[in-house]
Design brief:
- This protein has a domain of 97 residues: Gcn5-related N-acetyltransferase (GNAT) (Aminopeptidase, 3-Layer(aba) Sandwich), CATH 3.40.630.
- The chain contains four helices and six strands.
- A six-stranded mixed beta sheet has the order 1-2-3-4-6-5, with helices on both faces.
- Strand 3, helix 3 and strand 4 form a beta-alpha-beta unit.
Length: 143
């Protein structure tokens, strides 16, 4: 999880309380992956979340999607995103947003999000200037 910001148990509990979706994928007796997403209006101080909140009135923000190295390539991340898209459609929400690191680069996340058609709508430096992120948006088709 070197590309996600650190998260202790209390922070995870607070995010879970704000989450519109918090899915955990379990394979056997191991956590294989998880996705945590928030709607607009959440009490969340993330620089990236705030960037989207300042520009989009309604959105579903993917705070983190993490797939363990042991389970990459098993389409678990795709399944998690399919549940995210189902939630968006069920709530008449078209705008899904996320970010990933481009400096230092995160090519795995880049490829994953490009497959779904996320497009860059901005960039910003975060973590005291140590990282640069690509801010991404996907507009789901109207059903």
């Amino acid at each position: 999880m070197r590309f996600t910001s650190p998260l202790d148990a209390a922070q995870l509990a607070a995010l879970h309380a704000e989450a519109a979706l918090h899915r955990v994928a379990v394979v056997g007796d191991q956590i294989a992956a998880f996705l945590l997403a928030l709607r607009e209006g959440a009490k969340y101080e993330s620089e990236n979340y705030r960037w989207f909140a300042a520009r989009y009135p309604r959105f579903l923000y993917v705070d983190r999607v993490v797939v363990s190295a042991a389970h990459r390539g098993e389409r678990i991340g795709v399944q998690l995103y399919e549940s995210l898209f189902e939630l968006a459609r069920a709530t008449n929400l078209r705008t899904i947003v996320c970010e990933y690191d481009v400096d230092p680069p995160n090519p795995t996340s880049q490829r994953f999000h490009e497959r779904f058609g996320f497009r860059e709508v901005g960039t910003q430096r975060v973590a005291g200037g140590k990282k640069r992120v690509s801010l991404r948006l996907l507009e789901l088709p109207i059903a």
